[in-house]
Amino acid sequence: MNRARKTGLTVGIIVAAIMVVLGAAIYLRSRAAPEAARLLPEADTILYFNLRPVRLATSFGNKQINHDPEYEEFVRQTGVQFERDLDEAAFAIHSNAHRTANSDEDSSRYSEVFIGRFNSEKLSDYLKKLSQSVEQYHGHDIYNIPHDNRTVRVSVLAPNMVAASNTDDVRQIHHIADQYGKSALPFGGPELVRDFYSEVPFGSLAWFISDVPLRNSNVPSGWAPQFVSQFLGGGVLVASLRYTTAIHLRADSFVSSEKAKDVADNLNNLLALYRKFDDSTHPDVQNADLKAALDSIKIEPQSDRVSLTATLPRELVAKLFESPVEAETKSQTLAPQPESPKKSKPRHRKR
């Protein structure tokens, strides 16, 4: 083999290797959890949603909404209107395992990452006015804001990203700031995300992963996924919402195969009871979209989980985003209008 042929073969092998590496990197990146979720610290529940596609499919964010005075003042000073400017949000819910039965306060703590279109300068000025002190951490300003006997720590990580945490431990907000510097890596994130994000269907607009342990029934529930987790057998719960021509809901509770069958039977019995009750109490009121959504619910046991799926028609989803004024106007438009009385021709007396 001459030198030119050897050189060509070597170059071909190198190019092929680079293509394989790039292909693997692109695939891993496509299946990586969203950046906002990867920045979060460890928690019992991770929640994420993406509002960009919702705005494209609906008029959400373009409607005139009456805000309460406190929020209106926030919008005026920062220029940030969440229903218009927020694109993505991820939450880490830190449940308090030492909560007592007599406690009425929700002792859960939250760490959050928001991505959107923010005026970072105006937002920083606003946060500085509210803060009791400002901490410098690895090039980021962390504003310590007193609120409801807690300290809320907020940091503007970038012009399009804000982090916050109301936990007692400052390490939560420090963790987010540290992970922000590593956000280019498609790996990492809380353990629940690393272990279970692969179970979230591709293209999901919203999802949560919860591992809230079962507790004694006399302990009040401080966070909704705890009740859902108990109801679905107490396993790690992965729920998601995906949109194509309709909204597709899916929830998987990861339990043993024996427990999955029992949970599925209980849920199917409860669903049949609800359908029967709804038919008997509203026999004359037929909402076709809602009925289609209820009829689409399927609950099935599998080897390592119990799965619940449902489909919400697009028309039903559109109604959920209608304001009461719009709904009333539409119903009045669609309602049959009474015919206007015909004017009788004037009669002329014969002379």
Structure in words:
- It contains 13 helices and twelve strands.
- The chain is an alpha+beta fold.
- It has a domain at 29-97 and 106-189.
- The chain is globular and about 60 Å long.
- The protein starts with a helix and ends in a 17-residue tail after the last helix.
Compact overview of the structure:
With 351 residues, this protein is α+β, with helices and mostly antiparallel strands.
Core attributes:
351 residues, alpha+beta, 24% strand
Number of extended strands: 12
Helix content: 25-40%
> Low-confidence segments, ≥5 residues, pLDDT <50?
24-30, 97-104, 216-221, 323-331
The separation of the N and C termini measures 126 Å
In DSSP terms (H or I, runs of 4 or more residues), the helix count works out at 13
The global form is: globular
Q: Helix and strand succession? A: HHEHHHEEHEEEEHHEHEEHHEEHH
Radius of gyration: 27 Å
Largest sheet: 12 strands, antiparallel
Query: Oligomerization state of this entry?
Result: single chain
- SSE-based structural type: alpha+beta
Strand content: 15-25%
Read across the widest sheet, the strand sequence of neighbours is: 4-5-6-7-3-2-1-8-9-10-12-11
Question: Kindly state the mean pLDDT as a whole number?
Answer: 78
